[in-house]
Design brief:
Four Helix Bundle (Hemerythrin (Met), subunit A)
Length: 183
């Protein structure tokens, strides 16, 4: 019976998460075809989010990393559902290692990142990649419950960061006055 419970949790996670990934993937595809990188810098419109303006080179790097992370998250779903723990661990490790501030950047790009990116963005990014590492470790231990927990945490981190720093690109995640409703 515990196996049935684990399968039910995985199926529920897939059903809850997959629509968000599919929508994000179709939006990314549309955005990539609609505007070249130089124009994309001006595409992010500050609503209630804190839009970040990056140079075209850094924006391209960030978009490339986000695309790889998105693909990793998409590939993670069937790996978890099938109990392919080595594959899930490998994907988690790749996501953990893609931490943007650890990439090979020029000194000027490093300076721009530290000057432009809010500390909370950097913290959120660091936590996201730490969760990916924890997911990888849990997958190595073949612990489905903990893998699903960290997958959930990673997905929540994506939604939270996109809502705060990229609401112009993801308008469905804009906070727009909801703050007062939670008091």
């Amino acid at each position: 019976m515990p196996l049935l419970k684990h399968k039910s949790l995985i199926i529920a996670a897939i059903l809850l998460c997959l629509p968000q990934f599919v929508l994000a993937a179709s939006h990314e595809h549309h955005e990539d075809n609609a505007k070249p990188d130089a124009e994309s810098v001006h595409h992010v419109k500050p609503q209630t989010s804190q839009a970040v303006q990056l140079s075209p080179g850094l924006l391209a790097l960030l978009n490339r990393e986000m695309g790889l992370i998105q693909q990793g998250m998409m590939d993670m779903v069937p790996a978890i559902a099938a109990g392919e723990w080595n594959k899930a661990a490998n994907i988690g490790q790749k996501i953990e290692a893609s931490f943007i501030l650890k990439q090979k950047l020029t000194d000027a790009q490093k300076e721009e990142l530290h000057r432009v990116l809010p500390e909370q963005f950097i913290e959120m990014d660091r936590d996201f990649h730490k969760s990916a590492g924890m997911l990888a470790h849990a997958a190595e231990m073949k612990n489905a419950d903990v893998v699903n927990f960290y997958f959930y945490k990673m997905n929540v981190a994506c939604v939270s960061c996109h809502g705060k720093y990229a609401a112009g690109r993801f308008p469905g995640l804009a906070k727009g006055g909801e703050e007062g409703h939670h008091h």
